[in-house]
């Protein structure tokens, strides 16, 4: 769990060298950041443990480099081709506190991590993109403390998730993206009472007929004290800063010393209290839970996601939207995600019409999900099965690692209303017995962890096969996700014939910018949209990829990049960006007439149409902006049109018009001739 919303007692604590921390927000007021300057060394010969590099006194410690954490050593020109173990060391000051627990948090480290504090082994973790933590209360001391961490990024051998395949194919040891290594996300300490909340799960489900909503919570807390306890629990719901009176009831049981407890509760919001979360009206509530001396809070949204008659429904309305696959990769940063980059990517994706994302094959920084909650975006989040082979999917160790990573991912993300589905993998051999078993078993496991979401996986084997629906693992999903790169019309019709009741997301489609040229890439978008619009069972199409990314996979250009993006590595626009924005805008605009008047006072009439095919969703609260004039557009349902009169002053030959969403992002912009 990410503890970003936890509220702690304010305790005066000293620490040293927190460094450049502002661009990586930890959203907890009393967290103690351990970012900034660390000492760093490569360990290609695996001498660190035997040489006791985790000890306070290490021979030739002056040979360590200085780096800034969060840190991706693969993005450093000195180490960019290195695969293996690297060490990080940081000294920080500490003043002991009594009657509290101190937790050491890693938001993510790629890939295998071992941790020591003050010469003692704390623990280890496997998995590159999910958070983990350790109770270090008993290892801290008054004064200077040494934290040592080894991180190994070797996922180019079979056995890791994600990792290399074991099929013996030529030039196929690499996953499709770079194995960026290091302490890639924030590291910090939190101070907890002896009875503290480990996680809070919120499920807010509306009754679309009555207008009410049921609010269910699960609180997992740990009793680290020396006696059994039955903590008092209180709940407070707010919306726009005002308390929403909700009677939430749950039963608190006695929890033995040193044990974990779970409390479930339930309450009902009246119709007057319910404001649904939607793409253009992303209403967010906040729930604060107090458990004894501890308190946690989390945002949540009230929304209902369903699959009906080969359609995806959000709050009872069919929705068909565009999407994109974002790869966590930026020049000079690698897989490090400062907030400014996440904000930039989110804005560019929203304004490109990318509203329905499968965010590649691992979970990115949680801040992206925060923005999706706040500004409206639908997300499928995916754990690391990237093209696992049948032998790997049958392997108990691989299955255990996947379950662990999925649980960490789900427990971090399950309060985000933007997360509507989980994927259990990408492009594995789903027609084999192993692929069928994996899909069935992992979805069953995942539903036990979080039964409130839809489930899918991205298949590449429905393009021509199978002949019967029971011959492929998509029989087990709530909606089909297909990675299709050619012959789209025939493929999509074939899939619909196999699974007529299931909606289809084209989870990957696209063409590289260097397939011919950038104009060809842009034209590909417009051409394929014609096919998508003919097929009402297509509920989304997610372009591969939003951005170019580095890779060692075969077919990568000699500069190290795969140019699939509608933006380049530095987020510079390609021609495809503007075409994607126009094609995926829910509203179109066309000139009806232009009437000239005296003294440069004219009247332009335009027709606004909400697409009735693809993409398709109602618009509400959109605005039209031009030359200092802002007009609020009427609410329109899919297929509806409305003529709008726009006063025009002056003698310009063109008028630039921007239509914006209620969240402030551009939906479409165009120039209209004034003649």
User: Roughly what fraction of the amino acids lie in strands?
Assistant: 25-35%
Give the quaternary arrangement of the chains: single chain
Q: Quick check: average pLDDT?
A: 92
What's the β-strand tally?
Answer: 39
Write down the overall geometry: globular
Helix content: 10-25%
Low-confidence stretches: 1-29
Task: Give the C-alpha Rg.
Answer: 26 Å
Biggest sheet, spatial arrangement of strands: 23-30-29-28-27-26-25-24
- The number of helical segments is 8
Structural class: alpha+beta
Give the end-to-end Cα distance, rounded to a whole number of Å.
Answer: 59 Å
Main sheet overview: 8 strands, parallel
Topology:
Elements: E1 6-7, E2 32-33, E3 36-43, E4 65-69, E5 85-94, E6 100-106, E7 112-117, E8 120-126, E9 132-135, E10 143-152, E11 187-193, E12 195-206, E13 213-223, E14 233-239, E15 242-244, E16 249-250, E17 260-269, E18 285-291, E19 294-300, E20 305-308, E21 311-314, E22 317-318, E23 321-324, H1 339-351, E24 356-358, H2 366-375, E25 378-382, H3 390-393, H4 396-413, E26 419-426, H5 433-449, E27 454-459, E28 480-483, H6 488-498, E29 504-509, H7 518-533, E30 538-543, E31 549-550, E32 561-562, H8 575-584, E33 587-595, E34 601-610, E35 623-626, E36 629-632, E37 641-649, E38 654-660, E39 666-673
Parallel strand pairs: 23-30, 24-25, 25-26, 26-27, 27-28, 28-29, 29-30
Antiparallel strand pairs: 1-19, 2-11, 3-4, 3-5, 5-10, 6-9, 6-11, 7-8, 7-10, 12-13, 13-17, 14-15, 14-18, 16-17, 18-19, 20-21, 21-22, 31-32, 33-34, 34-37, 35-36, 35-38, 38-39
């Amino acid at each position: 769990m990410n503890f970003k919303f936890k509220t702690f007692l304010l305790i005066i604590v000293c620490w040293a060298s927190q460094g450049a921390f502002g661009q990586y927000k930890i959203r907890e007021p009393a967290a103690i950041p351990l970012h900034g300057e660390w000492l760093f060394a490569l360990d290609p010969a695996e001498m660190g443990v035997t040489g006791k590099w985790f000890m306070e006194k290490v021979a030739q410690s002056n040979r360590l480099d200085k780096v800034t954490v969060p840190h991706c050593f693969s993005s450093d020109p000195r180490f960019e081709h290195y695969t293996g173990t690297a060490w990080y060391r940081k000294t920080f000051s500490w003043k002991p506190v009594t009657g509290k627990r101190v937790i050491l948090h890693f938001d993510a480290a790629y890939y295998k991590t071992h941790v020591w504090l003050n010469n003692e082994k704390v623990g280890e973790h496997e998995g590159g993109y999910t958070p983990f933590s350790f109770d270090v209360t008993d290892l801290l001391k008054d004064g200077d403390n040494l934290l040592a961490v080894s991180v190994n990024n070797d996922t180019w051998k079979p056995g890791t998730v994600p990792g290399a395949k074991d099929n013996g194919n030529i030039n196929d040891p690499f996953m499709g993206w770079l194995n960026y290594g290091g302490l890639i996300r924030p590291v910090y300490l939190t101070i907890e009472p002896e009875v503290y909340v480990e996680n809070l799960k919120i499920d807010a489900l509306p009754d679309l007929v009555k207008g009410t909503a049921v609010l269910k919570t699960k609180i997992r807390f740990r009793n680290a004290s020396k006696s059994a306890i039955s903590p008092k629990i209180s709940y407070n719901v707010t919306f726009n800063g005002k308390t929403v009176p909700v009677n939430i009831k749950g039963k608190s049981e006695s929890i033995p010393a040193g044990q974990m407890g779970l409390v479930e509760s339930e309450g009902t919001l009246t119709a007057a209290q319910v404001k649904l979360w939607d793409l253009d009206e992303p209403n967010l509530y906040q729930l604060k839970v107090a458990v004894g001396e501890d308190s946690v809070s989390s945002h949540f949204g009230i929304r209902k996601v369903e699959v009906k008659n080969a359609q995806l429904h959000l709050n009872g309305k069919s929705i068909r939207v565009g999407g994109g696959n974002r790869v966590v990769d930026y020049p000079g940063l690698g897989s490090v995600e400062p907030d400014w980059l996440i904000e930039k990517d989110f804005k560019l994706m929203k304004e490109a019409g990318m509203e329905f994302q499968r965010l590649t094959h691992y979970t990115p920084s949680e801040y992206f999900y925060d923005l999706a909650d706040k500004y409206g975006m639908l997300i499928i989040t995916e754990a690391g099965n990237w093209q696992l082979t049948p032998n790997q999917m049958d392997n108990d160790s691989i299955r255990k690692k996947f379950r662990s990573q999925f649980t960490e991912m789900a427990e971090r993300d399950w309060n985000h209303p933007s997360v509507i589905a989980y994927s259990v993998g990408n492009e594995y051999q789903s027609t084999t017995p192993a692929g069928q078993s994996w899909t069935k078993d992992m979805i069953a496991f995942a539903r036990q962890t979080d039964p409130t979401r839809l489930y899918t996986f991205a298949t590449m084997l429905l393009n021509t096969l199978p002949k019967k629906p029971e011959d492929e693992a998509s029989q087990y999903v709530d909606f089909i996700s297909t990675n299709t790169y050619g012959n789209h019309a025939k493929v999509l019709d074939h899939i619909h014939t196999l699974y007529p009741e299931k909606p289809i997301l084209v989870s990957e489609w696209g063409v590289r910018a260097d397939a011919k040229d950038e104009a060809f890439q842009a034209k590909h978008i417009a051409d394929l949209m014609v096919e998508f619009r003919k097929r009402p069972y297509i509920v989304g199409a997610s372009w591969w990829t939003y951005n170019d990314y580095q890779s060692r996979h075969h077919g990568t250009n000699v500069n190290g990049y795969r140019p699939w993006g509608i933006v380049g590595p530095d987020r510079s626009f390609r021609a495809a960006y503007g075409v994607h924005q126009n094609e995926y805008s829910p509203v179109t605009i066309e000139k009806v007439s232009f009437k000239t008047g005296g003294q440069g006072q004219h009247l332009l009439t335009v027709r606004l149409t909400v697409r009735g095919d693809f993409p398709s969703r109602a618009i509400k609260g959109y605005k039209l902006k031009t030359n200092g004039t802002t007009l609020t557009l009427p609410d329109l349902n899919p297929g509806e049109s409305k003529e709008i009169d726009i006063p025009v002053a002056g003698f310009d030959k063109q008028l630039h018009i921007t239509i914006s969403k209620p969240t402030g992002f551009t939906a479409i912009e165009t120039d209209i001739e004034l003649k």
